[in-house]
Amino acid sequence: MADQAEKIKEVLTRGVENIYPSPEALGKVLASGKKIKLYTGIDPTGDLHIGHGVVLNKLRQFQQLGHHVIVLIGDFTATVGDPTDKAATRKPLTKKQVLTNAKNYKALIGKTLDLKKTEFRFNSAWLSKMKVDNFFELISHFTVQRLLERDMFANRLKEGRPIHAHEFLYPVLVGYDCVALDVDLELGGNDQTFNMLAGRTLMKSLKNKEKFVMATKLLVDPTGKKMGKTEGNMVNLDDSPQDIYGKVMSWPDTLIVTAMEIATDIPMAEVKQVGNELAAGKNPKILKMLLAYKLVEKYHSTTEAIKAEENFKQVFEEGLNPDEIPVFKIKTRRLVDVLVETKLASSRTEARRLIVQGGIKVDTKKVTDENFVISKLDADGVVIQKGKRHFAKILK
Hints:
The chain has 396 residues and is of the alpha/beta class. It is 47% helix and 13% strand.
């Protein structure tokens, strides 16, 4: 019983930002032995990433306690577009784009959850069949003032940016999912709190039922900004071992403890010890390497984690080229064209900029002449490096 109590405590606290109506209320239900039904919703607007991984970790904890876990794929709501954290309206996605985005979701989710014990649902099953009178009945449970409480809407109004009706009503649609699933608990990132609470409102109004909401912590930089594609530091769950390791090593040192807590399976006693070591002045690079190793191990294997760490040391500590580099046989020798053909640059304009700014090395030597031509190419070829993590080998 003591072991079970500890597991429940970890479920309620590790990586958790908020629980509604309260941690005590949810804890009481879990301690009673009742098996609950819970879910998270994922709109397939792109790749699954480490942020999704945080929520999946939490779902696995519930799964290990014997509770029924549902992963809801928002194939309908993804075509509407979640306005969360968006300063402008999302570009609409077609149903075909949404399903293409989701094609590898199940396999990636299976790296964390037990698929045999995981139910997958799609919200088009009910939302695409909803009649107009039913939809108007739904929105009658909300006021305009309530929906305008969202920060991004307030900011857009202040800046004179448009708010389209479909994104304004998105929380109502996604909120209905929990009613259709008849769940006891919804999990999501803290940035999804508004949407999850909209579902809580509908559950109370339509079913007179309590729905718990658990909001997990976010992986954010010191300014409060989430990891993202623009910054190039977002770890996707299908990234290669080398990319996961390299991206993590580029994260700010301030993320080490939080990431260990919410994105890995490292015991909390060890996570706290890492925090103490950082506070005592231990070299953060060593601890970040542990974090990178653990994440590669989690989403690939121990063997791949060892290889990724060795590769990182070889490239960044010994200044050598990595062992596994994509190889190209191309006729051009002009560096600008080589960068484009090897996809190290998306255009000649970008290639010139990278060269002039000192972001390109040829056989470990920096090149800043945009007219540079590779004059000699022996049997071993020439290695082109962009930045810290991207390489290509040119052969005859």
